[in-house]
C-alpha cells in the first residue's frame, strides 16, 4: 500500500471532485480512480459510492478517512522531527479579507518568513464568498474571513473580533451629535454587497427598528468604501481599527449613534491533513499574531 493512495483519498474526500484532485496532484482522473480502487482492494471495503458524476463516502469511507488523516499527520510529525524547519520547502496559500490585511496580516507574514524561510507564501485577498470557494476547491490552505467552512474535515475558529463604527466625512455629519437609526437610514450609505456576511449584519440593524435604508451604494472592497466615505459620498459601517488613522487626522468622524453596531467576528478556516503538523504550526502562528496585535491596542476596539 502506497502513501500516495492515502494522500489521494484524503484530498479527494476534501475536494469532492476527481478533476480538481487530479489537478492538485498533477496527474489524471483515471490515475486518481486507479489509486482509490487499489486502496479499496487493499482494505477490502468500498470507500466511495458513485452517483453519476457525484460521489459520497460510505460508512467505511468515513471511518477510513479518520484513521488515514491521523496516519498522515503522524507520518508528517515523524518527518518533521528529522528535519530542520528552515530546510523544509513548502507552499502556503493564505487567503484574507481586507480588514485582516490592513491590521495583523503583515506581522503574521513576517512570522511565517522567520519560521519557514524557504516557504513560498502566496497571499490571496478577496471576499469571504470567494475565499471559501477557493478553499473548497483546494486553492487555499488557510483563510481569514467572516464565515466558517461547514463541510466535513475542515476546522474553523474565531481568530479575533473587531468593534464596528459608523463613520462619515465631517462635511456630511456633525461631530458629537447622537444619530438615531432613522437618521442614519435617511442618509446615503456605502455598504458591502448584498448576500455577504457584513451586509447580513447591517440589514437587521435597520430592519429591527422598522427603518428603510433606501440610499445604498454597494462595494466588495473595504478600501474603496473608506475612500468613498472620506470623499463625502455617504457613511459606512466599518471596523474601527481600519479607519483609526483617518479619524485621528480628521478625515472621518467616528459617529455617535443611539444604537451601537454589533462587533464583527473573523473566522480562520483550514484543513488539517495532509501536511497536518506544519499546518498546525502555521495556525499557531496566526493565533499568536492576532493575539499580539489585539494586546497592543485599545481592548475596546479588538480582542481575541
From TrEMBL:
Keywords: DNA-binding, Transcription, Transcription regulation. Belongs to the LysR transcriptional regulatory family. It comes from Chelatococcus asaccharovorans. This is DNA-binding transcriptional LysR family regulator. InterPro entries: LysR_HTH_N, LysR_subst-bd, WH-like_DNA-bd_sf, WH_DNA-bd_sf. The keyword Nuclease does not apply. It comes from the Bacteria. Transmembrane segments: none annotated. GO terms for molecular function: DNA-binding transcription factor activity; transcription cis-regulatory region binding. Pfam families: HTH_1, LysR_substrate.
Amino acid at each position: 500500500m502506497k502513501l500516495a493512495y492515502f494522500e489521494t483519498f484524503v484530498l479527494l474526500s476534501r475536494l469532492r471532485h476527481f478533476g480538481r484532485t487530479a489537478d492538485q496532484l498533477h496527474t489524471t482522473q483515471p490515475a486518481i480512480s486507479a489509486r482509490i480502487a487499489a486502496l479499496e482492494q487493499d482494505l477490502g471495503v468500498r470507500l466511495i459510492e458513485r452517483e453519476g458524476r457525484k460521489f459520497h463516502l460510505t460508512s467505511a469511507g468515513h471511518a477510513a478517512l479518520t484513521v488515514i488523516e491521523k496516519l498522515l499527520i503522524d507520518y508528517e510529525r515523524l518527518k518533521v522531527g528529522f528535519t530542520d524547519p528552515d530546510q523544509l520547502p513548502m507552499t502556503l496559500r493564505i487567503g484574507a479579507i481586507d480588514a485582516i490585511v490592513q491590521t495583523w496580516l503583515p506581522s503574521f507574514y513576517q512570522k511565517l518568513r522567520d519560521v519557514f524561510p524557504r516557504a513560498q507564501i502566496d497571499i490571496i485577498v478577496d471576499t469571504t464568498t470567494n475565499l471559501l470557494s477557493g478553499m473548497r476547491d483546494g486553492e487555499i490552505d488557510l483563510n481569514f474571513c467572516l464565515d466558517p467552512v461547514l463541510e466535513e474535515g475542515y476546522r474553523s475558529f474565531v481568530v479575533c473580533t473587531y468593534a464596528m463604527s459608523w463613520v462619515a466625512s465631517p462635511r456630511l455629519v456633525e461631530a458629537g451629535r447622537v444619530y438615531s437609526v432613522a437618521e442614519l437610514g435617511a442618509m446615503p450609505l456605502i455598504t458591502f454587497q448584498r448576500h455577504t456576511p457584513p451586509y447580513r449584519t447591517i440589514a437587521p440593524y435597520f430592519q429591527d427598528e422598522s427603518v428603510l435604508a433606501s440610499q445604498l451604494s454597494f462595494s466588495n472592497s473595504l478600501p474603496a468604501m473608506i475612500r468613498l466615505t472620506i470623499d463625502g459620498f455617504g457613511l459606512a459601517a466599518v471596523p474601527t481599527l481600519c479607519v483609526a488613522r483617518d479619524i485621528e487626522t480628521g478625515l472621518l468622524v467616528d459617529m455617535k449613534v443611539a444604537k451601537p453596531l454589533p462587533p464583527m467576528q473573523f473566522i480562520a478556516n483550514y484543513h488539517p491533513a495532509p501536511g497536518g503538523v506544519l499546518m498546525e504550526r502555521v495556525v499557531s502562528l496566526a493565533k499568536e499574531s492576532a493575539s499580539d496585535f489585539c494586546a497592543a491596542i485599545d481592548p475596546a476596539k479588538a480582542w481575541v
